[in-house]
Amino acid sequence: MLHRTDTLKANSDFRRLYDRGKSYVAPELVVYLMKTHRPINRIGITVSKKIGNAVLRNRARRVIREAYRLLAPEISVFGWDMVFVARQKTARTPCPKVMDAMRELFTKAGVINQ
Q1: Residue range 48-62: average pLDDT?
Q2: ∠ at Cα 14 (61, 60), nearest 5°?
Q3: Which of 109, 88, 111 is nearest to 28 (CA)?
Q4: Which ranges of the chain would DSSP assign to H, the alpha helix?
Q5: Is the pLDDT of residue 2 over 70?
Q6: Measured between alpha carbons, how far is 2 from 90 in angstroms, rounded to an integer?
Q7: DSSP string of 43-66?
């Protein structure tokens, strides 16, 4: 089965998730989730300048994107909008640890059934 994911780009989409979405927090990242009626999942990633210079911010984005890519086949239900917010630890944490944190948050939210 093909796991198709689009990206959130519009500021209004991010604002909607911050205002009306449910947030789940881990030391490595924060995820805002909201169920939609779309047949696909959409993700957005935000990294503040507080995280560090451009190299660290880009690494944080790459780590989050890769962790999501590896977890995508486990997602049982489609129609989620997700915004991942990097935290201070994200850029310095190896991808498998970020993936474990993401799996734990997804399980708590009911996105992954385990």
Answers
A1: 96
A2: 10
A3: 88
A4: 11-20, 54-71, 95-109
A5: no
A6: 28
A7: EEEE--GGG-SHHHHHHHHHHHHH
User: For the chain, which domains are there?
Assistant: 5-105 (3.30.230.10)
Is the pLDDT at 24 greater than 70, yes or no?
yes
Chain Cα centroid distance, residue 47: 11
Region of 109 please: left (phi>0), alpha (psi -120 to 50) or beta. alpha
The total number of residues shown for the chain amounts to 114
Please say whether the dihedral angle defined by the alpha carbons of residues 33, 37, 43 and 48, taken in this order, is positive or negative.
Answer: negative
Dihedral angle computed from the Cα positions of residues 69, 29, 111 and 34, in that order, rounded to the nearest 10 degrees: -110
Evaluate if residue 1 carries a pLDDT over 50. Answer: no
Average pLDDT of the segment spanning 18-25: 96
Cα gap 60→30, rounded to integer Å:
12
What is the model's pTM? 0.93
Q: Quote the pLDDT of residue 78.
A: 86
